[in-house]
Amino acid sequence: MEFFKSLIEDIDAMISRDPAARSRLEVFLTYPGFHVILFYRLAHFLWLKKFHLLGRYISYLGRWFTGIEIHPAAYIGRRLFIDHGMGVVIGETTQIGDDVTLYHGVTLGGIAPAINSKSQIQQKRHPTIADGVIIGAGAQILGPVYVGMHARIGANAVVLHDVPEKVTVTGIPAKNIEVGDTKNNFMAYGICSDEIQDPTLKLIENLSEEIALLKEQLNQIKR
Predict the structure, then answer these.
(1) What is the CA radius of gyration of the chain?
(2) In what order do the strands lie in the sheet with 95-96?
(3) For residue 170, which of 144, 154, 190, 203 is within the disulfide window of CB 3.0 to 4.6 Å?
(4) Mean pLDDT across the chain
């Protein structure tokens, strides 16, 4: 009973966050982000029961059918929504909280301190994503970083350090560009405000303005 209740929760979460979803039946039949959760739940159950090879095989089938790769050892909370989904990778020691949204091409990848070291196998190598986070298309979060509650990761951002809660980051490497109450403000792809700018572009614009001002002052001195 709890299993079916969880499935209904997942479907309703997808409907609430995707204006293109028209019904529970449509999500059930046509959404790869929902299908991969079914594969993951079974694979994760088998992994916890020490059937590691079978768990990996089930997750492989999920990847083959959906284009989304989730390691069966990863922990995923309730109401995860993977929109579009193709190319999403969720690594072994990833932890994802409740009500998280991922778009296509997202990588929650691992960085190991040493190569071929058995002592590193059980160490935390992948991100921890807190409740309510939105991660835009193509974003990469690499290593054992922590992304705080209701943070927003912009499309194609590369996150290598912890992200505070209720902060929007973007760029390569990702930098804070907006701080505010994002808890009840769903932002598709992590960014929806016209006022949000890439921090690197903003820095270049500021430098250009300073150079123009200095040129004007120099011309006045020459006169």
Answers:
(1) 21
(2) 75-76, 95-96, 128-129, 146-147
(3) 154
(4) 85
pTM: 0.77
* Nearest C-alpha neighbor of 143 from the set 113, 117, 122: 113
Kindly report the three-state secondary structure assignment for every residue of 3-68.
HHHHHHHHHHHHHHHCCCCCCHHHHHHHCHHHHHHHHHHHHHHHHHCCCHHHHHHHHHHHHHHHCC
Residues whose CB is less than 8 angstroms from the CB of residue 2 and which lie 6 or more positions away in sequence, other chains included: none
Single out the residue of 83, 74, 70 nearest to residue 27, CA to CA. 83
Torsion (CA) 51, 57, 58, 60 in degrees, nearest 10: 140
Task: Indicate the burial class of 223 (C-beta count within 10 angstroms; 0-12, 13-18, 19 or more).
Answer: exposed
The C-alpha angle 84, 86, 90, rounded to 5 degrees, equals 105
Q: Which of 165, 122, 166 is nearest to 144 (CA)?
A: 122
Are the C-beta atoms of residues 111 and 123 closer than 8 Å to each other? no
Q: Which two tokens stand for residue 151?
A: 């943070």
- List pLDDT tens digits, range 30-75: 999 999 999 999 999 999 999 999 999 999 999 999 999 999 999 9
